[in-house]
Write a structure and sequence with these properties.
It is built from three helices and six strands; from the N terminus they run ββααββαββ. The protein is α+β, with helices and mostly antiparallel strands and about 150 residues long.
């Protein structure tokens, strides 16, 4: 289970601190943590569109880490910081899993939906959604650590 705490130091610069969450690398822990974080964000009185965008982007990023970076191995940590600045929420997600291919964010291209239902891809929508909803997305690989930062406008 995740530990949800108010950020007091570290995390994101130049932001009003909101939360820091440590999440176990399982789908169940991600789901539970996402619910906790969304409740915390809801209490800020943000517009519904910003809350929805934050939930979708966070779900995609966290689930990608579980599935790809940690290859569904439980017991690994995902650290999430959220800070509030003027008209935006800033997110930082850190894990110690496998790096992104070529140490770059995926292209996130739209998938062709003009095909037979049986020919629709099972995945491939995540990075398109992330790049459509988030701003200032960055990825850095530090020694043995991935860091993804992005913002959601409010």
């Amino acid at each position: 289970m995740a530990s949800l705490a108010l950020v007091k130091e570290g995390g994101l610069p130049q932001c009003k601190p909101i939360v820091h969450v440590n999440i176990d690398s399982t789908q169940a822990a991600v789901s539970a943590s996402l619910r906790q974080v969304c409740i915390q964000l809801y209490t800020l009185g943000l517009p519904a569109e910003a809350l929805s965008s934050a939930e979708i982007v966070l779900a995609e990023v966290l689930n990608n880490i579980v599935e790809h970076a940690y290859q569904n191995q439980a017991g690994q940590n995902i650290a999430l910081w959220i800070g509030q600045a003027k008209k935006r929420l800033n997110f930082k997600v850190v894990d110690q899993g496998q790096p992104l291919p070529d140490l770059e964010l995926p292209a996130g291209k739209a998938t062709d939906l003009d095909v037979q239902t049986c020919d629709l891809p099972e995945g491939g929508f995540g990075w398109f959604l992330i790049k459509s909803l988030a701003k200032d997305i960055s990825y850095n690989r530090h020694p043995n650590e991935n860091e993804i930062q992005f913002a959601i406008e409010v």
